[in-house]
Design a protein that fits this description.
Layout lengths: L2 H16 L6 H8 L3 H4 L6 H24 L6 H18 L2 H10 L1 H28 L9 H16 L11 H16 L2 H16 L1
């Protein structure tokens, strides 16, 4: 890992804890233990910092999902569970203030994150659906482009804090319920039987 990547990952943690707007370049140099002059050797300005942090986040998500999908011996439902849990755990660690600040003060960078979800995660879901149909777990009589886009839209709503009246539920309960809801909607009888075998494990995970 080179020094810029190391700085970027540390700054990502800072933004996730405190948001973006309230953190200055002076704060970052102090947190990193380097001078502002050194910091500016790696970043042009704060917007450049934000863009590099978001790029690192996107790359991390892509690599993490790709590694999960490369695991052998897993069917489509297990792959979807692991992928969805990875994405959900990432969302859980992000300070809502960071999401708000990105939307309000760095709309161009925010759009890059939205584009990642709309393109890459849409592709992951479509690939998962094709796998599930080939394995005889998912129904083959549904417009799956609509299903995949609805999945992505739900992620966008959650990341923007627009899932209304869910504050009284734990994150894990929301995740498990929405996962089961999604899989039940696309599974055939074989898939439903397999899902039923997972539900007890989901409830205790």
């Amino acid at each position: 890992m080179d020094q810029q990547e190391e700085f970027t990952r540390k700054i990502m943690d800072i933004f996730m804890r405190y948001g973006i707007k309230s953190v200055t370049m002076d704060d970052l140099s102090r947190e990193l233990g380097v001078s502002k002059k050194t910091l500016y050797q790696f970043f042009n300005d704060k917007e450049d910092v934000v863009r590099k942090v978001v790029t690192e986040m996107i790359d991390g998500q892509k690599c993490g999902i790709d590694e999960m999908l490369e695991q052998q011996g897993m069917n489509a439902i297990n792959h979807l569970l692991n992928m969805s849990r990875f994405i959900a755990n990432h969302l859980k660690t992000v300070n809502p203030a960071m999401t708000y600040d990105l939307q309000k003060y760095y709309p161009g960078v925010w759009e890059e994150m939205v584009d990642f979800k709309r393109q890459n995660i849409f592709k992951y879901i479509m690939d998962n659906i094709r796998q599930g149909i080939a394995e005889g777990l998912y129904r083959d009589d549904i417009n799956y482009e609509i299903i995949a886009k609805a999945y992505v839209s739900r992620l966008e709503m959650y990341s923007r804090g627009e899932m209304q009246d869910l504050e009284k539920y734990s994150f894990d309960e929301i995740f498990n319920t929405l996962f089961i809801y999604h899989v039940r909607g696309i599974s055939n009888s074989k898939g439903l039987k397999y899902l039923d075998g997972l539900i007890d494990g989901l409830a205790t995970s």
